[in-house]
Amino acid sequence: MELIFLKPAGNLLAMMNISLWGAFILALPYVAWEVWRFVIPGLFQHERRLMPILLAVTVLCFSAGACMAYFIIIPYALHFFLTFGADMAVPQIEIKEYISFVLRMILVFGVIFELPVISFILARLGLITPKLLRKIRAYAIFVIALLSALITPQDPLTMVMAMVPLIILYEVSIFVAWVGKRRREPDNEDEETAPETG
Q1: Which of 22, 38, 60, 110 is deepest in the core (most CB within 10 A)?
Q2: Could you state, in order of their start, the residue ranges of all structural domains in the chain?
Q3: Average pLDDT over every residue of 180-197
Q4: What pTM value is reported for the model?
């Protein structure tokens, strides 16, 4: 695959775009640390013990989503698009569009992989429960299918490749919400003793 640029400054702007986003991603751990130092005086002792773990898990989840997009989803999607109808036209991809496509996929999957972290926080705040997540599972799968169709190239296999990890993440989120609820209400025995997933 050969990339092209259509404006005199196209290459320069593409490199600047990559540099800016790369700097943003590399700076995230430091920014998170500074936010942590700002927030820590207002937290209880048990919250202070929990926050570093939560920040680390947040970074790991984002990294996992970004890696999945970069190493699995993007290569397959590009292969599909570049080979589909190749006998009718020769593909020429403008470098700006290519970088925009790659960055969008990485960011979207990175954010989506934060679902378990979000579930844990909402469960700790008492806004969701494992029972609620199990009750709306069918609707959630429908939304996941719709979201997968919107964020991926419009071919069925790529959509399924996006759906499967998202459904797994939803099931993980049920368990994570159960853990968050148990930590919030350690003496509450009226909920189920363990979450049901799958």
Answers
A1: 110
A2: 1-113, 114-198
A3: 56
A4: 0.75
